[in-house]
Design a protein that fits this description.
- The chain contains three helices and five strands.
- It is α+β, with helices and mostly antiparallel strands and about 170 residues long.
- It has a single domain, classed as Peptide Deformylase (Alpha-Beta Complex), CATH 3.90.45.
- The site of nickel (II) ion (NI) has 5 residues, from helix 2.
- The site of nickel (II) ion has 5 residues, from helix 2.
């Protein structure tokens, strides 16, 4: 098991579009294990493969308080967005220390493959629904900062470059 380095915004690799996983095999399961370890180590509620510079459609999520309800989504597809628009304060492991409000839909129905390669469907609302939308955005090369004003994006880029200079 390994902890994987997480890319930081505005790294251009966060803009790459992930390709579907052709076969859920031992390689994919090993990557899922490393992604889960990386997410738990960083105290995140989700992680997309894009954030660890792997451009394949793989997401891990755990929104439980007990940190023992890992959900794995391979090749996820949004079947339906439901409910009203809700505004949630979001953060991102690729944009550490930055939090801002993003509007998304309240509910989501998603189809994906599990770690066993079997297809499943899930309906979610609340934080899980927000997190699923946030992670699927990563697979499409989109970060929550992209929804903010140009002024905020410019400021956040500056802060992140400074932070990454200091820790380099
Ligand atoms: O840990 C995370 N918290 C979070 C809070 C509100 C909305 C979305 C998230 S996802 C984020 C982890 C992450 O960056 N996933 O890509
Ligand atoms: Ni994120």
């Amino acid at each position: 098991m390994a902890l994987l380095p997480i890319l930081h915004y505005p790294d251009v690799r966060l803009k790459k579009v992930a390709r579907p996983v052709a076969r859920v095999d031992e390689r994919v399961r090993a990557l899922v294990k490393d992604m889960a370890a990386t997410m738990y180590d960083a105290d995140g509620i989700g992680l997309a493969a894009t954030q660890v510079d792997v451009h394949e459609q793989i997401i891990v999520i755990d929104v439980s308080a007990t940190r023992d309800e890992l959900k794995v989504f391979i090749n996820p597809e949004i079947l339906e967005l439901t409910g009203e628009t809700v505004a949630t304060e979001e953060g991102c492991l690729s944009v550490p220390g930055i939090y801002d409000v993003v509007e998304r839909r309240e509910g989501v129905r998603v189809r994906a493959l599990g770690e066993d390669g079997e297809s499943f469907e899930l309906s979610a609302d609340g934080l899980l629904a927000v997190c699923i939308q946030h992670e699927i955005d990563h697979l499409k090369g989109r970060v929550f900062v992209d929804y903010l004003s140009q002024l905020k994006q410019t400021r956040i880029k500056g802060k992140m470059r400074k932070l990454d200079r200091q820790s380099a």
